């Protein structure tokens, strides 16, 4: 049996959708399991023992109609028995339809439904602590059997040499390992998913005062100016405990460094999902437009905590869709003052005392 999973989205989505391979491998141990993803998201699923082959979508080659048709032909040649399209957009629907697979499963949308043999509506209520992002994905496997699990935790598989590299990096940087080491997701994936800088600086001061850790920062070189602006708002004592110089050169290096941390705190997003997949405790701040019941993966477990504007101003968010909330995110974020959730943050930090 040959099965293809398609997820042409960002890092967090690709990582979360990788749970399908664990479920499929357990049910079909001898199957050929392939994953079609964007080239730049490859690091989060490298070394995953449940994935046999990666098919990389390269925008420079496949974004045009001719390029998409070429990719679809390559997929069709593989003669897959089943294609699970988690992305569920026009381009992935085209690839799925052209595959001629006997089972073609995806989400129910009026503009792509004819491409599939089985479609499913998005669930609105959770059955487990996993979160809707996981439960919705697993239901796509229903055409292949009714005995798949209802929840599976995403995992990242680091090589031993990667862990050793990260340990050596911290040792050579003279990081005091007698202190707690926290990774800070200081910026979101975009302005509309980034907690206000003055509030983030307040939180960094609070974290350092309460737990006395060493702080590492998750950011890329192009974001250094934004990061420096936030750090300038921090107390001098806080800045002394921040090692902004320790940054991975690529995503895989960040993952390795993160694996050595005691916790990750900050903006909800891909970094939080990666930390959870490494079994690192997290404290995340959700953007107003991001539904926590969808992306709050395993939030009710002992390890993970989060805050959302809905915890304090639920009535403001009612009757507004994601698009409207995204437009208003800057002003809505300002309502989520750090003082509102100091108690929740303190309770999280006490786990490391």
From TrEMBL:
CC terms in the record's Gene Ontology section: cytosol
Protein origin, superkingdom: Bacteria
Species whose genome carries this gene: Christiangramia fulva
Gene3D superfamilies listed in its UniProt record: Glycogen Phosphorylase B (3.40.50.2000)
tRNA processing is among the record's keywords: no
An MF annotation (GO) of this entry: ADP-heptose-lipopolysaccharide heptosyltransferase activity
Keywords from the named record: Glycosyltransferase, Transferase
Protein's recorded name: Glycosyltransferase
Entry-linked Pfam families: Glyco_transf_9
GO biological process: lipopolysaccharide core region biosynthetic process
Signal peptide from the UniProt entry: none
